[in-house]
Amino acid sequence: MFILIASGTVLGIAGTDLVLPAVPSLPGQLGGSIEVAQLVLAAYAFGTLVGLLTFGELGARFDPRKLLIWSLALFGLASLASAEAPSIEWLIALRFAQGAFGSGPAVFAPGFIHGLYPHDKAAAAMGRLGSVESLAPALAPIAGAWLLEFGGWEISFVLLAASAALIAAAVSWQRAAFPRPQQMEDHHSYLFILKNFEFLFYALSQALSLGALLVFVFGLPAVLTGPLDRGIEDFVILQVCGIAMFILAANSSAWLAAKFGTLKIIRTGTAIMPCAFLAIFAYALTGSGSLYVLVPLWAVLNLGFGIRAPIGFHRAISAARGDHSRAAAIVIAAILGIAALGTTAVAPYISVGLWPLAFTGAVISALALLSLVPLRDVD
């Protein structure tokens, strides 16, 4: 059950990361500029935002197991349609639909996890889920770069469609083994959850932290292959090193929280992020782009996020008092909303270099740290 839950959420993440290496080449294939091509990423994020809130509401009214199957099936159809897009504008529109349909697994995963594991094991399970999900940003760009070389940008979308069909079939086959809806959660409303200030601040900090990271990652391939005049393989190297550090940190997160206090570790990990972004910003102002400098700084940034991510997400979901689907929808929608807005805002400055991305990441992650100020630890 855990493997199927993780596979569904990984597929939604791969919808961005598998396509990332192809973004710089899209203007030459479908027309438009590199700035317009960045909207292929932003549209997916905006679509996911809409889908998260929609599936969060549907999950309170219908069987999440059936909704998970429909989400995967429609994601597969949107992926196939994207592969046949005749222009960059059509691809942007289809990417919005793809993101919306692919958001279901992320909404239902926390509820399924809490149904499968007792409360004291759920945080560790969420950490494992985060570690599995983090493999997508590390491995998907490698696969995407190889697929781009092998068969063009379209083949990535075909692979997403085929994967969605397989996972949907497996979930349908094992549907009876999934936790039943009444085992999973209590339902309130979005307004009820948003009135909970503990949830609000934890959710905002989580969203700003990951949003800052995603804005940087979404723009990095275009900067590396554009103004820095490097190859897409450099992006792959950075991702692999960063994700390896994230996995190590994420799997230590629950242990550190038990030893030193949950909120203290969340604050520590969050504080590392703006410091690392500012270090990248200072280096970027020199106009250089050596991996010997960027890799260690990127690893430190992912260390900070890995320390705070699993326990931060779990604390936010727990603060929602049992409505896991809506809480997850709010948190992930906020993440994607921040990522989409940040990506759109920084897109006109992609040709300048790395510093606009690093500066934007520093500002957003600093706001994530400020969001934790009103909170008090309950450990």
UniProtKB/TrEMBL annotation:
Keyword Lipid biosynthesis recorded: no
Stored Gene3D superfamilies: Multidrug resistance protein D (1.20.1720.10)
Coarse class of the protein's main subcellular location: membrane
This protein's UniProt keywords: Membrane, Transmembrane, Transmembrane helix, Transport
InterPro entries: MFS, MFS_dom, MFS_trans_sf
Transmembrane segments: 37-55, 67-85, 97-117, 129-149, 155-178, 199-224, 236-258, 265-285, 291-307, 327-347, 353-375
Transport found in the keyword field: yes
Domain Major facilitator superfamily (MFS) profile, chain residue ranges per copy: 1-379
Membrane-protein topology: Multi-pass membrane protein
Protein's cellular compartments: Membrane
PANTHER family membership: MAJOR FACILITATOR SUPERFAMILY MULTIDRUG TRANSPORTER MFSC (PTHR42718:SF9)
Protein name, as recorded: MFS family permease
